[in-house]
Amino acid sequence: ETGVTQTPRHLVMGMTNKKSLKCEQHLGHNAMYWYKQSAKKPLELMFVYNFKEQTENNSVPSRFSPECPNSSHLFLHLHTLQPEDSALYLCASSQDRIGYPDTQYFGPGTRLTVL
Amino acid sequence: AQSVTQLDSHVSVSEGTPVLLRCNYSSSYSPSLFWYVQHPNKGLQLLLKYTSAATLVKGINGFEAEFKKSETSFHLTKPSAHMSDAAEYFCVVSDLYGGSQGNLIFGKGTKLSVKP
Q: Distance from B115 to chain A by nearest Cα, in Å?
């Protein structure tokens, strides 16, 4: 256990559905991340939150909408997804300090299938 | 801009033999380098990290990696493979002075198979 939990672990949704992925970290970290892991592609950083403020948005389509209500929780709201969005979505957290890229701790991921 | 290249997409070894997973990086400034491991249907777990201290870094489960600036390499090694080492391994770079400080750039991964 890394101290980062994700729910649900598996999700199947149609293209017209709306669903949310949840991530919670119990490590007291101040930064949280969403990554997308597709087959045969490097891990792609989607969003970064630092002290609840979004600091990165790597050109992610608007059908993905993040929410960070506090430093311990991170959501990814999904709507009108496409089949190519099927992937493993990983959440991570770290203690962000200026000048020192600290270790990121990853959750187990949510396996998303879009039909 | 920083980048990382994992030279082998798949490595197969026999149990008890040495493991070598190769990684080359490109970074404008002093890089921090990491190796993460991902077992099937699991998240990523940190194996080890280099952050400008000793160039030979020891990690968990008997793995170690050596930072070689002249070769821009950070290869991962283990003297003797175990069946439980079968997983996917990711080499990762983070640029201390980059625009996205603290953000990680992942390699494409190397899948390690261990034969009995």
A: 23
Q: Write the pLDDT tens digit of every residue in B30-57.
A: 788 999 999 987 889 999 999 877 889 9
Residue A101: predicted pLDDT = 60
Report chain B's mean pLDDT, rounded to a whole number: 89
A83 interfaces chain B, CB cutoff of 8 Å? no
Looking up tokens 């008890």 gives B16
Does any CB of chain A come closer than 8 Å to the CB of residue B70?
A: no
Q: No. of H helices and E strands in chain B?
A: 0, 12
The closest CB to that of A56, out of B36, B100, B108, belongs to: B100
CB of B62 closer than 8 Å to CB of B80: yes
